[in-house]
Amino acid sequence: MAEAVDGAEITGPHRVVVVGAGFGGLKTVRALQDVRVGGKPLAITLIDRQNHHLFQPLLYQVATAALSPADIAEPVRALFTGQDNVTVLMDDIAAVDPAPRTVSGRGGTYPYDTLVLATGAAYSYFGNDTWAAHAPALKTLADARLIRRRILLAFERAEMTADANARAKLMTFAIIGGGPTGVEMAGAIAELARSTLARDFRHIDPAQTRILLLEAAPNVLSGFPAPLQDYTVKALEGLGVMVRLDAMVSDIDRGGITLKDGDRIPAATVIWAAGVRANLPGGLDARTSRSGQIEVAPNLSLPDHPDIFCIGDACHYEQDGTSLPGVAPVAEQQGAHAARVIRARLAGTSPPGPFRYRNAGMLATIGRNKAIADLGKIRFKGWLAWMFWGLVHILFLIGFRNRLMVFWNWTWAWLTYGRGARLILGGSRRDAPDP
């Protein structure tokens, strides 16, 4: 049975290509994998540059030695075992050609009838790309391992040096960006230094570690209400973190950070957690936002290419005059909506209305027994918010084994203040911090 999509007759199974195996991409595939057209299942191809789905909200815990990489990642192929109409490919898609309807990567060219771009975002250094060598960002497991290596090596090198200035620099950690990742990283490094490593060294006192959180705006966690922002700052300061607001960075080098006001901060370990920019393949003539996100129609398709959808962090979508945040619930809901639009088109039924995000709330953890929760009319903080944050994250992890291991590691860490992933692996001398 032939079908017609946008005026073009297709005689074989309808080919859906989804680029990106993050939260949005997986949701799209799962919502479409049982669709049949003319008795035929869709031919779905899921392409990602990595072979695993990564639970990014817990990536900072890998970077600070609380969890191992396998605790928060799952092979993509394992998620679709037995689903014969879903093909998983590991490739880096570089270009889209809308005319013949193909996407191209290093491994080849892949035709599509419907394309869903769920390519996510990477951190942006605002045109200062040389800073990346001195201030790594946190988006992948490789990033997390690099940051963990730098953090742990800083303490090892401080233990060996007799120079007071070099030791002070090695024991200074600066995190740039006061969003959830920056706040979580600052709190986790503080707990690592003051609790886990407290009695591991003989020549240094990890409790004397200097941790700075630098935010260019006048507040941290800009999406949260002011009372929860104030609580966050006080909680971080209680952990020994120095929070500096209105602190604009003008330069980063191997020696540390220079602020726009001229202040110089010697720091051996600098972590970037500031702005992001969309990851998009070339070849698309589409309007983009300042952060490189594709501006989409109300149904999440590209205005000039109705057979191409864009969701998640790669997509710019405004609701009630405000851009939606780059968080997992947005990507998942957009993936489900795009799938409903595709289903309706293939079935010849009325399409759903414009996409609308249903905000179930926002969470951020600061440290042991410290977190904040904004669930709309209900807001709470402290131990209860911390327990709620942990429960939500365990429930959203993919795979029973992942949930079990994370729960066990968290329980063990809570009882003993220990962190079981304090291994320095791989890397090169260039990855190590300079004294």
Question: Which key phrases capture this entry?
Answer:
435 residues; FAD/NAD(P)-binding domain; 2 domains; 4-stranded parallel β-sheet; 31 strands; elongated
Structure description:
The protein has 435 residues and is an alpha/beta fold. It has two domains: 3-49 and 91-123 and 276-347, FAD/NAD(P)-binding domain (3-Layer(bba) Sandwich), CATH 3.50.50.60; 129-274 and 361-431, FAD/NAD(P)-binding domain. The protein is 29% helix and 26% strand. The longest helix has 20 residues, at 141-160. The radius of gyration is 23 Å and the shape is elongated. It starts with a strand and ends in a 19-residue tail after the last helix. Mean pLDDT is 93; it is low at 1-10.
In short:
The chain is an alpha/beta fold. 43% of the residues are buried.
